[in-house]
TrEMBL record:
<comment type="similarity">
    <text>Belongs to the glucose-6-phosphate dehydrogenase family.</text>
</comment>
<keyword id="KW-0560">Oxidoreductase</keyword>
<dbReference type="InterPro" id="IPR019796">
    <property type="entry name" value="G6P_DH_AS"/>
</dbReference>
<comment type="function">
    <text>Catalyzes the oxidation of glucose 6-phosphate to 6-phosphogluconolactone.</text>
</comment>
<dbReference type="Pfam" id="PF02781">
    <property type="entry name" value="G6PD_C"/>
</dbReference>
<feature type="domain" description="Glucose-6-phosphate dehydrogenase C-terminal">
    <location>
        <begin position="186"/>
        <end position="479"/>
    </location>
</feature>
<keyword id="KW-0313">Glucose metabolism</keyword>
<feature type="domain" description="Glucose-6-phosphate dehydrogenase NAD-binding">
    <location>
        <begin position="9"/>
        <end position="184"/>
    </location>
</feature>
<feature type="binding site">
    <location>
        <position position="179"/>
    </location>
    <ligand>
        <name>substrate</name>
    </ligand>
</feature>
<comment type="pathway">
    <text>Carbohydrate degradation; pentose phosphate pathway; D-ribulose 5-phosphate from D-glucose 6-phosphate (oxidative stage): step 1/3.</text>
</comment>
<protein>
    <recommendedName>
        <fullName>Glucose-6-phosphate 1-dehydrogenase</fullName>
        <ecNumber>1.1.1.49</ecNumber>
    </recommendedName>
</protein>
<dbReference type="GO" id="GO:0006006">
    <property type="term" value="P:glucose metabolic process"/>
</dbReference>
<keyword id="KW-0119">Carbohydrate metabolism</keyword>
<feature type="active site" description="Proton acceptor">
    <location>
        <position position="237"/>
    </location>
</feature>
<feature type="binding site">
    <location>
        <position position="213"/>
    </location>
    <ligand>
        <name>substrate</name>
    </ligand>
</feature>
<dbReference type="InterPro" id="IPR022674">
    <property type="entry name" value="G6P_DH_NAD-bd"/>
</dbReference>
<dbReference type="GO" id="GO:0050661">
    <property type="term" value="F:NADP binding"/>
</dbReference>
């Protein structure tokens, strides 16, 4: 679906995120014919570049980081023609008036400002957009994570932005919400009659959410060491997955209806007991340096892995544990949600000693190999009497939907286009972010107060042994990471 014409200004236009994700993503949308004639992208940064040098930089970035099907028809040169550049000093007055002159004064042209910079600059940029008259009644601002590092700093950022922009102009990115399969969670839950009646404490034993990565923190050690898995992944991405899995059905698929329901989930989260959290840090192995080497901090106590058990204190989920885990340098890249249902309330079959009680499980694979598997119990074929066996009812989206399912826009592409469309459904609202920090802050404060030391784990493993114990103690098992 084509979008309106736009002027998109990217602050931090020469930075890492712009080069890796934003600009290659825009190029893909251009190739897909979604960028209308007259759409313009303006890089703004401190570097002393001219338009030609910026275009060269973007050409290199697309060559290096571009993904997806090759662009047919429209050439890279055509895309580069949509680009411009302005040298701007976020903390001074240079460049702002000239940037304003570049923007079109036309109410049919959407005006959006992408803050692809550290949160320390959000307030400065927002203020200058106002004082130099670049912001209009309808212009939009897009802000990246990390949105603060605790409740206090997130509140301060929200307050800074709120001085200059209304909430409906602010788009806080959590790129997990832009992933196709993450949105699919809502389609699966609320588009089928099968699941929702069972989606509660009466039928669900527990839910697992795993986001395992094989990458290390090499190259990002300085940022990561101040953040750790809790701030980098749990407070945002895993919380968003938890919200989508656990929320009540919104009355309609509209931004505030969806975000109201997500917020209720976060607010209903109970504080986490210290013995329900396992922190880990990867050691050296397999030819890769240890976390501490990557962080260049031999004494670092920052976690590169976390597993925790939490509870949502509401009618639907009373007593149902949610187990979350995420880590770097793990055995495989696997993001998956598993809903483990309770066994049937009475078994009419004899279950032999040592045989497993069969439970249905729904595995939702977010990446890679996107799809869903439902474990179903059937009779084991053969003459051996009524013995039960569990078999997978499996659907891989790319097989079910054909090649189109493979060529979907990546998260950034989709989210940027949603900004232009003015659709905030897949963006975090200020109160959501604050509520998420309000839940994570005491957990982090607890570690700091106890000087908690993360458990070492072998790279290429499933994390520290204690993480397995977290579930074993409850008589449950993690899904294998593979
Ligand atoms: C980012 C984190 O937000 O998400 C990274 O800062 C992490 O540490 C990344 O690797 C994971 O995203 P994806 O899309 O690769 O699952």
């Amino acid at each position: 679906i084509p979008v309106d014409r736009f002027d998109l200004v990217i602050f931090g236009g020469t930075g890492d995120l712009a080069r890796r994700k934003i600009l290659p993503g825009l190029y893909r949308r251009f190739c897909a014919g979604q960028m209308p004639d007259g759409a313009r992208i303006i890089g703004a940064a401190r570097s002393d570049l001219d338009r030609g040098a910026f275009q060269d930089m973007v050409r290199d970035a697309i060559t290096e980081f571009g993904t997806g099907a090759p662009c047919e028809g429209a050439t890279l040169d055509d895309f580069l023609e949509t680009l411009d550049y302005m040298r701007v000093d976020a903390r001074g007055e240079d460049g702002w008036d000239a940037l304003k002159d570049m923007l079109r004064d036309d109410s049919d042209v959407v005006r959006a400002f992408y803050f692809s910079v550290g949160p320390g600059l959000f307030g400065d940029i927002a203020a200058r957009l106002q004082s130099h008259g670049l912001a209009t009644e309808d212009s939009r601002v897009v802000v990246e994570k990390p949105f603060g590092r605790d409740l206090g700093s997130a509140r301060a950022l929200n307050a800074d932005l709120a001085q200059h922009f209304r909430e409906d102009q602010i788009y806080r990115i959590d790129h997990y919400l832009g992933k196709e399969t993450v949105q699919n969670l809502m389609a699966v839950r609320f588009g089928n009659v099968l699941f929702e009646p069972l989606w509660n404490a009466q039928f669900v034993d527990h839910i697992q959410i795993t986001v395992a990565e094989t990458v290390s923190v090499e190259g990002r050690g300085a940022y990561y060491d101040k953040s750790g898995a809790m701030r980098d992944m749990v407070q945002n991405h895993l919380m968003q997955l938890l919200c989508l899995i656990a929320m009540e059905p919104p009355s309609r698929f509209d931004p505030d209806a969806v975000r109201d329901e997500k917020l209720k989930v976060i607010r209903a989260l109970a504080p986490v007991e210290p013995h329900h959290i396992v922190r880990g840090q990867y050691e050296a192995g397999g030819g890769v340096a240890s976390y501490r080497d990557h962080a260049e901090n031999p004494k670092s106590f920052t976690e590169s892995f976390i597993a925790l058990r939490c509870h949502i204190e509401n009618w639907r989920w009373a007593g149902v544990p949610f187990y979350l885990r995420t880590g770097k340098r793990m055995k495989a890249r696997m993001s998956e949600i598993t809903v483990v249902f309770k066994p049937t309330r009475h078994s009419i079959f004899d279950i032999g000693e040592g045989e497993d009680v069969h439970s249905n499980m729904l595995h939702i694979r977010l990446q890679p190999n996107e799809g869903m598997t439902l474990d179903v119990t059937i009779k084991e074929p053969g003459p051996g009497g009524m013995r039960l066996v569990t078999v997978p009812l499996d659907m891989t989206f790319s097989e079910a939907l054909g090649p189109e399912a493979e060529d979907v826009p990546d998260a950034y592409e989709r989210l940027i286009m949603d900004v232009i469309r003015g659709n905030q459904t897949l963006f975090m609202r200020g109160d959501e972010v604050e509520a998420a920090w309000a839940w994570t802050d005491p957990i982090i404060a607890g570690w700091e107060a106890r000087a908690d030391v993360p458990k070492p784990y072998e790279p290429g493993s499933s994390g520290p042994e204690d993480a397995l114990m977290l579930m074993h103690r409850d008589g449950r098992r993690w899904r294998e990471i593979k």
